[in-house]
Specification:
2,3-Dihydroxybiphenyl 1,2-Dioxygenase, domain 1, 3 helices, globular, binds carboxymethyldethia coenzyme *A
């Protein structure tokens, strides 16, 4: 397994618009994209910090995962996303080492990436997302 770097850091917020007032309006971070992930019922915004991003996550009506996090812990750091070059190989390796993934198949994440999460109970309390960037950019159609 080779971790290439941090892709992004996820932050759970009550309102993306309100969080952008601080991070973009006051702190001047560039907004790369604001996106509605309809299938996950999330509104997300990506802010550029050098090579990595802050991903602001706002749950929409009917969303259960980030909503539960906000209810239990309030706003704050939600996950760290590690960039890997081959998601399947990486997951196979980690399964062999006894780590649990959340779900069995890679999912389509924001920006057309392929993602999978590891259970925070297996990673010293940090929710880790494994990210493989797609060839073909945003569409996520071409995978080699
Ligand atoms: N970081 C660290 N620990 C977390 C956590 C987080 N983000 N979310 C939950 N936990 C911990 C809880 O504190 C709890 O620990 P204790 O038992 O010691 O209290 C334990 O995990 C179980 O938490 P829970 O509140 O009972 O919640 P669930 O088990 O229902 O869900 C998890 C937890 C990690 C399985 C769920 O959040 C999940 O499936 N996450 C992966 C998907 C995801 O996060 N999607 C949103 C982002 C999508 C995107 O970026 O595209």
């Amino acid at each position: 397994m080779r971790v290439q770097g941090i892709d992004h850091i996820g932050v759970a917020v009550q309102s993306v618009d309100s969080a952008l007032e601080l991070y973009s309006g006051v702190m001047g971070l560039r907004v790369k994209k604001v996106e509605i992930l309809e299938d996950r019922r999330l509104k997300v915004a990506f802010l550029e910090i050098g090579e990595i991003s802050f991903e602001l996550l706002e749950p929409l009506e009917g969303e259960e995962v980030v909503s539960k996090f906000l209810e239990k812990r309030g706003e704050g750091l939600h996950h760290v996303a590690l960039l890997v070059d081959n998601l399947e190989e990486c997951v196979k390796y980690l399964h062999a080492k006894g780590l649990r993934t959340l779900g069995t198949q890679p999912q389509k994440g924001a920006e057309g990436k392929r993602i999978m999460f590891l259970h925070p109970k297996d990673t010293h309390g940090v929710l880790l997302e494994l990210v493989e960037r797609m060839k073909g950019g945003e569409t996520g159609e071409i995978h080699e």
